[in-house]
Amino acid sequence: xxxxxxxxxxxxxxxxxxxxxxxxxxxxxxxxxxxxxxxxxxxxxxxxxxxxxxxxxxxxxxxxxxxxxxxxxxxxxxxxxxxxxxxxxxxxxxxxxxxxxxxxxxxxxxxxxxxxxxxxxxxxxxxxxxxxxxxxxxxxxxxxxxxxxxxxxxxxxxxxxxxxxxxxxxxxxxxxxxxxxxxxxxxxxxxxxxxxxxxxxxxxxxxxxxxxxxxxxxxxxxxxxxxxxxxxxxxxxxxxxxxxxxxxxxxxxxxxxxxxxxxxxxxxxxxxxxxxxxxxxxxxxxxxxxxxxxxx
Length: 296
Description:
By secondary structure, this protein is an alpha/beta fold. The chain has one domain: Rossmann fold (3-Layer(aba) Sandwich). The chain is built from 10 helices and 7 strands.
């Protein structure tokens, strides 16, 4: 996709951080933008800052299929068919898996993974039916590659978003719809304050809130990459039809180290002929799918 002008975008988590940066960048390209967020006050503040008649705000919970469908209908009624989807909403829980409760799992996966699933299930059938192409950007994270003990459930959710996005990219390529996985590192945002929007119905925590730690997290995130820089790199990645969009340059060596460890652990030896025959076919089909998704 080279030209964004005249299209309509739907951005979840659009009222702050990366989402708001994307809204600014897209409006500057002549795109109509629907900002979806769970915080009405943040939506109001964002619309005041943007001061653009081509932007609207929609309050919704991305973990709700019903609310997602209703917001999508409202966005398209007011702005026209959506062909740019940014499944960006995300929250974080800075604790290990063994310290977590079922409510912790349901909350984090509900937003970070099911929010992406709901965005795909809501918009992709519409985009395919219209046949006008488009692009889906799912915000994963460098945490979709680099998993330490904390934040455990967050890592799980982002690994899943990465796998979902890659599979979706291959299936949508024949329809002229691109898919990218946005994998940022530290960004200046309010994700450290995720507990502020945790629903009461999922309030059973595996570990009490560490308020002092959250104060430190706020300081750390204040030094993160500016969301406008992330947004500019994201639009560049869409134009180049990249699958992985890596805004931060500081992870290259660490990624190489991790993948070298994986290859070092991989066994040597010969597989049975029957299994090799199957894998050769699968490998060739996978190679073709990757080439088609890259337009080669």
